[in-house]
Automatic annotation (TrEMBL):
<protein>
    <submittedName>
        <fullName>ABHEA protein</fullName>
    </submittedName>
</protein>
<dbReference type="GO" id="GO:0005737">
    <property type="term" value="C:cytoplasm"/>
</dbReference>
<keyword id="KW-0963">Cytoplasm</keyword>
<dbReference type="InterPro" id="IPR029058">
    <property type="entry name" value="AB_hydrolase_fold"/>
</dbReference>
Amino acid sequence: VPGYGDSPPAEMVVTAQGRVAFLDHVLQELGMRRPVLVSPSMSGRFALPFLLARGDQLAGFVPIAPVGTKDYAAEQYRRVQTPTLILYGDRDTSLGPQALQSLWHLPRHRVAVVPDAGHACYLDKPEDFHRALLGFLRQLK
């Protein structure tokens, strides 16, 4: 994502509104209709404002200990009707539980905790991670 890792900063993504527009543009360019948005860690800065503004465009949402969950109020989360799988590793004692505390307010959520996995639970325990993810995807319409 722009501004993270080795990618150059982009003026467009300085605001939450700009990040929503950026992600919307990416999805349109890819021709994606009602995708499931999987959002690990720092991508939460893009995915969360998109979920709150345009969650009806998503078939599902899978936050994996995303950052930025405390930036939004419980009431904002309660308005979202997107099916959500909240995922994190049980060894992630910081962002995982913190994200859960905020995302718990999403009305259509499930929680999957990957055992013996840290913050990057998809790298630590890929089979367990994929089992949880695929189980969630199968239940979507």
